[in-house]
Amino acid sequence: MNGFDAWLAYLFEPPRDEQPVVWLDRYAHQDTPVAQAERIRQLFGDAGASLRPYSDDRVAHGLREVVDGLGVLCSRRVPMVLRTRGLRSIVTLFAEVFAARIEVEHSRRIPELQTVCFMFFEVAPVDLGDDTVLDVLEDTLALASVPCQRAALHGLGHAHLHAPRPVQAIVDRWLSRHRDAPQELRDYAAAARVGDVM
Predict the structure, then answer these.
(1) Could you give the CA distance from residue 19 to residue 39 in angstroms, rounded to a whole number?
(2) Which of 11, 38, 128, 148 could connect to 143 by a Cys-Cys bridge, CB 3.0–4.6 Å?
């Protein structure tokens, strides 16, 4: 088992009592920021196939840990090209996992995967005012998935503090292209446009 597969198993497979964890035993002690960023890029860039074997609950559980570690994509110890590719691969994660798996949003007993999707940009330790991150937010907003659009709008609402003009421009473009979107989503977009999200 190579390092990437061991990492996937550690994050996404159910724990097994007293069974050695290959990732911790063989790989974790020699980890580096560059290796972390490359694993994230590889996972997100092929998220549909990489995460297909796992249930929604296991995917949500593992992604929470991955999202907590996204700060590495802002680290100066990681080459800019890799940081940019890693950030841009977030759009693929949204398209291949969140859009594909969350067909209907639930308002009661919200599934964990839906929560991870919605809160992604709020909890990810990335610079919401960064041009690449703003591009990722706009590309995520362009996906034909209401949960992904709502997550991007939520992120844009938080990004407003750091980059008000770009956020307003992104939301305005979306509003002009999505006049037939559900009114409550358009209302949420208007709130995000001025940073009024919770």
Answers:
(1) 24
(2) 148
Range of the domain at 95: 32-193
Distance CA(39)–CA(8), nearest Å, equals 9
| C-beta separation of 118 from 147 below 8 A | yes
- Please list, in sequence order, all residues whose beta carbon lies within 8 angstroms of the beta carbon of residue 74, skipping any fewer than 6 positions away: 83, 125, 126, 127, 130
Tell me, yes or no, whether 85 lies in a domain.
Answer: yes
In this structure, are residues 33 and 88 in contact, taking their beta carbons and an 8 Å threshold?
no
- Tell me the pLDDT tens digit for each residue of 131-184: 999 999 999 999 999 999 999 999 999 999 999 999 999 999 999 999 999 999
- Residue 7 falls within a domain, yes or no? no
- Three-state DSSP at 77 gives coil
Q: Are 196 and 157 in contact (CB under 8 A)?
A: yes
User: Does the residue 162 lie in any domain?
Assistant: yes
